[in-house]
Design brief:
Helices cover about 25% and strands about 25% of the residues. The mean pLDDT is about 90. The chain is α+β, with helices and mostly antiparallel strands. The chain folds into two domains: about 100 residues, no CATH class; about 120 residues, 3-Layer(aba) Sandwich (Aminopeptidase).
């Protein structure tokens, strides 16, 4: 169910490429749930309630007046969306407190050049794979969410739907030790870059699992930079496996 976008990336900065990749991923998730968003020159936004953990707005450029982006935000405010919707300010430039938003968190965009040396994966008992079927995907989401299948008192509906498995630009990466799925990530390819997101791994030896995710993403989509955003200890792990820290972003909630 690949959905193509025609953005020219020849003059985009690294941060703009990362932000557009992230917005396309947000739109891909929303589309699988029947709620696609809209792409404009400087912003992606969605007039519908979106799946949990995903924003209604992602800013795409800081080359135009901020008033244009704020106009889209005000349009959604006036639409009276359900509570708890969010805005990803990709360049950390919007003051949304005046519109009754609260700052959820700050992070940094990250970039890893395809020419950087691939990290070595030392534990050969770990098998890294790209998921192929729905049972694997259900197991992956359970491991990612920290809720073992059948053990949640209030089970959430699936966030990652099987239609994503047939999209050639999306790869769910998993690390198996025997039959146990112990780490993973999502890679989504846009024209110039590959986004790496939703990475989870055991707390012990996390850098090694980051290295495995990076190596698998590069092998799946060779020749393209990896992008994403992280904060805190995960940002340190990303830098340890060759990512460069770029500009900061902010996520606001209402």
């Amino acid at each position: 169910m690949a959905f193509k976008h025609s953005f020219s990336h020849l003059t985009l900065s690294q941060v703009e490429q990362a932000a557009r990749n992230n917005a396309i991923w947000c739109d891909t998730i929303c589309r699988t749930h029947g709620a696609p968003g809209e792409f404009h020159a400087d912003v992606w936004f969605n007039r519908n309630p979106v799946p949990r953990f995903y924003p209604n707005v992602v800013t795409l450029s800081n080359q135009r007046p901020l008033a244009a982006q704020l106009a889209h935000v005000q349009e959604l405010v006036a639409a009276i969306l359900p509570d708890h919707w969010a805005i990803k300010d990709s360049f950390g430039e919007l003051d949304l407190a005046v519109l009754a938003f609260q700052l959820y968190f700050e992070a940094h965009w990250i970039w890893r050049a395809p020419s950087a040396p691939l990290p070595k994966v030392h534990d050969h008992s770990i098998q890294w794979v790209r998921l192929q079927d729905q049972p694997q995907l259900t197991q992956w989401e359970s491991a990612w969410s920290g809720n073992p299948i059948g053990h949640s008192a209030t089970p959430q509906p699936l966030l990652f739907l099987p239609a994503l498995l047939v999209d050639p630009d999306v790869a769910f990466i998993a690390a198996y030790q025997g039959s146990a799925l112990i780490a993973g990530a999502i890679a989504n390819r846009t024209e110039p870059v590959v986004g790496l997101s939703n990475l989870f791994a055991p707390a012990e030896d996390s850098v090694s699992f980051w290295a495995g995710c990076v190596a698998t993403a590069h092998a799946t989509f060779p020749g393209l930079p990896l992008v994403g955003y992280e904060s805190g200890v995960d940002l340190s792990h990303a830098e340890a496996v060759g990512f460069e820290k770029l500009q900061s972003l902010r996520v606001w909630g209402r």
